[in-house]
Write a structure and sequence with these properties.
2 copies of one chain form a homodimer. With 245 residues, the first copy, chain A, is of the alpha/beta class. The first copy, chain A, is built from 9 helices and 11 strands. In chain A, the strands form 3 sheets. A 7-stranded mixed beta sheet of chain A has the order 3-2-1-4-5-11-10, with helices on both faces. Chain A has a two-stranded antiparallel sheet with strand order 6-7. The interface between A and B is medium-sized, with 32 and 32 residues.
């Protein structure tokens, strides 16, 4: 059984209250950057890996996608997603991301937002996604940055007065399981190097088209005190890829 | 005037004594990985940016390159390079890397070993290198890893007994000058994010073919105590690229 943390009632009760659960895409600081990587969506068939509440699925439809399949392992997530939209062109399917099986070229676009650090074998997933895309198709995703996942603690190194001295990196080359804490609960993530992400994509056949390590502007950081240190180390890694024509 | 640290007599006297100056490619831990990224060299015309003592230029010739141009800003470096080989198919040229000007398609391969973190405008250099390569040509380089250049100190965070607690990262998104110390001297480097390296290449027209963050094996680390912590954070970033046919 793959980790299904989001069907843990205590964890989910906390997850429901974080900004991106309450405000959706507007509550996700990296969303404008993610959106900028998406191709023209009109007429596209799209796949969302780790769709959660379905925010991205609904966005894709609003922008003209003709069919959207959202995959998630959590029944609670999918129940929320279904409750938020009756759009019969969005299909929510309960399945581990690693087990997806689609026809060759069934989609024109695959996306994933902050979910692929939960899977163990990234190169294998790349091969499946590549196969499921039509020639010229796009694969756009975000993950927690490898600088964030290297140490399971995922915390700033603090000084004697609790001030944030710097971000600590260690065990970077030791890829694999990280037993982290999030929202006060145990969450299993998989750490991978940047090289493993990029080479997994290239070896599957993708062409890398852009890499973004987003950082809020100085203005945004001034307005949102909780983001004030977000230029000091990258929190997310976004990669846009294309399947050659 | 571009930084020409290697013509500083005191600095050069120290540089002459480090393992990679004494032992050449065999003294560079990342060399086997760098070499693995090179294409078949037979019949190739090659450019080496920041050629130093000319170790790579001579290797390229040994492997069958028909013409090699080595660029360096330091006359001391080039004097060493010229003294080590009378091969008239290697041309050593004194020039800042940023100022290179070659005919379109003049080379089949461009390489650079641990030199591009000394230049300010990486995307501009990518455009020049791209233009100088023939279709199907390769660009392979190594730089200090952005996790290493983020903080000018470039030192482990130590515990009370001097033990290496972790590698500190800070100011990652603030690209630009870093006044570092190396071999007891001031050395100016330029910090860039991983995204800036990769997007600079893609925007110039290159296809990324492989990214390596090399790490010595557990066996090598056991044999070489000075490498024992090299799996804890990446020290180098190597990127292999091709110019589409």
């Amino acid at each position: 059984m793959k980790q299904n943390k989001y069907d843990d009632a205590a964890f989910f009760a906390k997850y429901e209250k974080i900004p991106r659960s309450v405000y959706g895409l507007d509550g996700a600081a990296e969303w404008p950057v993610f959106r900028s990587l998406l191709p023209d969506l009109r007429g596209k068939r799209a796949l969302d890996l780790g769709c959660g509440y379905g925010w991205h699925c609904r966005y894709l439809r609003e922008q003209g996608a003709v069919r959207v399949v959202g995959i998630d392992l959590s029944e609670k997530m999918l129940a929320e997603a279904r409750a938020r939209s009756a759009d019969c062109s969005i299909e929510y399917r309960r399945c581990p991301m690693e087990d997806i099986a689609f026809a060759e070229g069934e989609f024109d676009l695959a996306i994933s937002s902050l979910a692929l650090h939960y899977i163990e074998d990234f190169p294998a997933l790349c091969r499946k996604v590549y196969r499921s895309l039509s020639p010229g198709g796009s694969f756009v995703f975000s993950v927690e940055h490898p600088m964030l996942t290297a140490l399971a603690a995922q915390e700033w190194h603090l000084g004697p007065a609790g001030e944030r001295l710097h971000w600590p990196v260690d065990d970077y080359q030791d890829e694999g399981r990280r037993h982290t804490r999030w929202l006060g609960e145990d969450v299993l993530k998989y750490h991978r190097t940047i090289a493993t992400y990029i080479n997994g994509l290239i070896e599957a056949g993708f062409r890398i088209s852009k890499v973004i390590e987003p950082s809020p502007s100085a203005e945004t950081r001034a307005q949102h005190p909780d983001l004030k240190d977000e230029h000091r180390r990258p929190a997310f890694l976004l990669i846009a890829n294309s399947k050659p024509e």
